[in-house]
C-alpha cells in the first residue's frame, strides 16, 4: 500500500532539488532519490517532471507570498514598503550566498520551449506578483512619494523584471552589488 | 587523421545547442551529434562540457560585441544610442519569437554552482558589457541628457541587469511588453 505522504515527500524534494540543480539538471530519479521513495511511485502521482515542476512552483509561491504582506503593511509609507520588500528579498539571496537565485526566475529562463504547462504557470505567478507590487506603487503615487508620469503597471512590471535581472547577476558576482545598484537607481530615479 | 575543422564544428554546434537547450539540457553527445563528429573526438579538443561552454560564450560575445558599435556611434546623441541599442537587442528577441533569451543570461542562471570556469567567464563578459554601456551613460550625463545624481557605473550595471530581467520575462510572456516597460521607465526616469 503506498504511503499517503509519498506525494508530499516528492513535492518537497522536487522544490529543493529543482531549485538547487535546475529543471534540466534534475532527473525524476534525482527527485525520487531525494524524497527517498521508489522511482516507480513517481508516476502514480505525476504525469511528468513538468507537471511536478508546476506543482513545485505553486509550493514556492505559497511561501514567497507570505512576504507580500511587507508590501501591504499600512503602517509603513508605501515607498518604504517597496524598499523593505526588496531588501528582504536581497537578504534571502545573501543568506544563501547568492547561489540559488529565484526559483521562478530560474524556471522562466530554463523551461523547455515547448512546455505550455510551465509557461502558463510562470505567467500566472508573474501576474500575481506584479499586481502586489503595482498596488504599492499606486499607493505611493497617490500620496505623492513616487513619480506619477509613468504608469504604475509599467513601473511594477519593470521593477519585478529588473529585480530578477539583479538576482541573476548576483549569482555570477556572488555579492550584493547588483542589489545596491537596483536600490540606488530605482529609488532615486522614481522619486517625484 | 582528425579533420582540422572538428574543433570549430564542435564550437559552432555547441553555441547553437547550448543556447537552444541550456547547459544542463545539453549533453556532450547532443553537441557531437549536432556537429556530426564522433563523440570520442570531443575529448581530443575539450576537457569538459564546461570548458566548451566557456569557449561558446566567447564566440557568442564576439558576435554580440559588433552591436556595441551602436553605443559608440558619435554621430548619434548618447541617449539615442542607448535607446537604439536596447531596441536592437529587442529586435533580435522578437525575430526569435522570444524563445531563446540571451545566452549569457541563460548561462548565468543555469551554470552549476561549483563551476568557477563559467562563473569567471560570465563575470568578465558582464564587466566588459557594462563598461560599453557605462561609457555611453557618461557621455549622456556629460552633455546633460541623462540625470547626473546617480553614478554612471550604477546606472550602467542596473540597465544591463534590468535588461536581462526583461528578456527573461519576454520568454514567459512571448511578447515585447517587458521591453516596452523597460524603455518607458528607464528613459523617463533617467531623463534629467
Q: Tell me the helix content of chain A.
A: over 70%
Question: What is the top-level CATH class of the largest domain in chain A?
Answer: Mainly Alpha
* CATH H-tier superfamily of the largest domain in chain A: Tetracycline Repressor, domain 2
- CATH architectural group of the largest domain in chain A: Orthogonal Bundle
Strand proportion of chain A, as a percent range, falls in under 5%
Q: Give the helices and strands of chain A as they follow along the chain.
A: HHHHHHHHHH
Q: Would you identify the regions of chain A where 5 or more consecutive residues have pLDDT less than 50? A: none
Enumerate how many helices of chain A there are, as a single number. Answer: 10
Strands of chain A, total number: 0
Q: Compute the number of structural domains of chain A.
A: 2
Radius of gyration of chain A, in Å, reads 19 Å
Computed structural class of chain A = mainly alpha
Shape of chain A: elongated
Structure description:
The structure is a homodimer of 192-residue chains. By secondary structure, the first copy, chain A, is mostly helical. Chain A has 2 domains: 1-53, Homeodomain-like (Arc Repressor Mutant, subunit A), CATH 1.10.10; 67-189, Tetracycline Repressor, domain 2, CATH 1.10.357. Helix content of chain A is 72%, strand content 0%. Chain A contains 10 helices and no strands. Chain A has helices spanning 6-21, 28-35, 42-45, 49-66, 69-72, 78-95, 103-110, 116-142, 152-173, 177-189. The mean pLDDT of chain A is 95. Chains A and B meet through helix 7, helix 8, helix 9 and helix 10 of A and helix 7, helix 8, helix 9 and helix 10 of B.
